[in-house]
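Our consortium's second objective concerns turning raw sequence data into structural hypotheses that experimental partners can test. To show how far this objective has progressed, the report includes one record in full. It was chosen at random from the queue rather than selected for favorable results. The single chain below, 824 residues long, was entered without modification.
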Amino acid sequence: MEIRSLTRAEAERRGALLEVERYDVDIDLTGLVDGPEVRCVSTVTFSCREPGAETFVDCAAEVRSATLNGRSLTATGDGRIALPALAGHNVLRVESVQADTTTGHGVHRAIDPADGEVYVWTSFEPDEARFVWACFDQPDLKAPHAFTVTAPPAWTVTSNSGDPRVEELESARRWTFPDTPPLSTYNTVVNGGPFHEIRREADGHDLGLFARRSLAPILERDADELFTLTRQGLAFFGEVFAMPFPQRKYDQVFVPEFGGAMENYGCVTWSDAFLRRAAPTPAESELFAKVLLHEMAHMWFGNIVTMRWWDDLWLNEAFAEFACHWAAERATRYTDAWASHLAGDKLKAYLSDQGPVSHPIHQPIHDVAQAASIFDNITYPKGASVLQQLMTYVGEERFRAGMTAYFARHAWGSATLQDLIDVLAEASGRDLDTWRTAWLATAGTDRFTLERDGDTVTLVAADTPRPQVLAVGAYRSSGRNDDTNDGVLERRALVRVEVTQTRTPVTGLPTGADLDVLLINDEDLTFATTRPDPATRDAFLRAAAQLPTAISRGVATATVWDMLTTGEATAAEAGRCVTAVLMAETSDAVIEPWLTLAANIAELWAPEGERAGLTAAVTEACRRLATDPGRRQVALRGLARTATEPDDLAWLREQAGDDVDLLWRVLVREAELGGDVSSESALLLERDPDPDAWVRALTVRAALPDSAAKAEVWQKLAVDRAVPVNSVGQVAAAFWRPGQDALLAPYTRRYLDSIPHLHRGGMIPAMVFAGHLFPPHAIDPAYIDEAQKAAHEAAPVVRNTLLERSDTVRRMLHSRTPTDRVIG
């Protein structure tokens, strides 16, 4: 029988009926050493406001026994157990077993290939706790949780509350954790395994780091940075929210085969792919910091105060994404965090917001299955940018005052978007109802241009704009740059403009005709696309690299990127612009995203006849960047992706030396170009200390223009799902290579055949496989039509991921089509 998804109406009825007093959950992990089973006994104590009424509890594990107030119950097989004739006060006890711990939901058993040790983790967002034990799996029914965990004697167990009492049993250990504060079911966690542990005291907090034993040297390498960031983040959020993190213990657990990171209260779970096997690049280090701060922000926004229903999922995730950039720039060394946000995720959001899955940021959510489909670019980067605009709109001090009131008013309960809007309106003295409707209830992206008539400048919206505050920067040439041989632009003025109508005068700019560039949305304060006027279009494309800051260059480059995706600029124009920006960039953190974008334009957006030339330009840029010691690592990685000439490949090998990571990248490129690298790959696999190095070897196989290799890789990647979810993108990118259309054609059909099954394993695997396995090559527009038609029969999370990815590929195909028109 199909497992039913909880609807909003059901959740509202159950939330009005019940008050959960506590959960007592006994978990037995000892069966995971040699088998797949997790055994649980969940005891739920709750009251009913209407004695005699009936409801249900969620349990999608195998139910072995269930009693309500001593009476036996029967599971219905649809993930629910009916609870008839409720008393005023009730005790529910359910024994359950979950045996699908390899590809199932909620709990995962992983085996470290380095030493055969077993690790287990749980992850429950949005409603996957029910796959492990019985619970009322909806966010507003918060309650204390008490976990008692029986585990193998060599294991360490982590959970939300820390400081467990540990008892030695005959052949196991029992870990009894103190009660948590009132938490939603999806914010709870239990992890287990023979972890390597590091602890440190900081500002009254007991901070812990955990990873599998085979990654202990890497965890030790990164520990100082992680502890520093954790201390800085806890101090920043405690101050700006006027509420220090209320628990002494704060643990972070890095586990294998996990996708992303999860904000479990007091015990954040990470994919251990974030523990970079090679020394991290500046962009990777900054991402590490932002993810850490994102999950930490959830301690307040999500855990302490929880959304009442999933229609406010956007606020939960967008707030954490906004807050991580806010904290990074104000409290850590990562002062270009907003610039890297623009260079990476915000560009994706602009594209998504103009495609078939664009939706209002806040929208009605019928059931949890629909909620799982909106962990997307609208919810995360657009939502974060809109919250940045909200802080700009009301002022940072008033924003902070509103957030302080919000947490004080709603701590340990649940709240709605309106609750947040109310406190911010009170603190700012502004009526935010119009702002809310325009920004949160309306899909799409504003677009602005400037009109100049002598010294008069007018900001013009393409349609009725949202109320917002943005800035216009005025720039004039101040000399020449020796690296680019172009003029260097100097900002002469920055004018903030409050937009309330289609045409808005811009006053306060310097007068005179000697201004070279007027940059709309300078400082990137809002979420809007822009266009240069036709008369200055070509000059604007050249000027992007001449702007003086990472954020101003990013705003200009975002304009050019958006023009490429809408067919208003060619790949050659966009590629030249991004490569020039790359060479002029002063911020180490954005070098890597711009280099990735330049390579993507050459590989995925350029017509076949122009691909080699654009790729060569990126290769040359990498050669030049490699002379800078601070950018050498990133540049050599870029060269390993784009090099085609034997001299470049030979030079790369010389530069690699004992750099195993770079050698793997070179082998992937040489395999794609038809080189016989199988023996060298086998030898490198023996040398590589990374326990997951077999994935690198598989990536080399994936790139080969060989039918047997493609068949082997597809089986492991798409059928067996043997590749860890965090590595699927890496292997898939090597599999779908340009110029291999004949070999890839059979797999385009296999992707279509797999669509009905892509949702298995839960939300994260569904998004990863649906997105990364979608073919960017060996297809035509008719194929995309067929894929989109098939998507409408798929699970919501698969449907939205597939529609978004297919729209991007359709735009790529349009850009690749040769045209006679001359754009610039």
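The partners drew two points from this record. The two ends are 59 Å apart (CA to CA). The chain has a mean pLDDT of 95. Both points have been shared with the crystallography group to help prioritize constructs.
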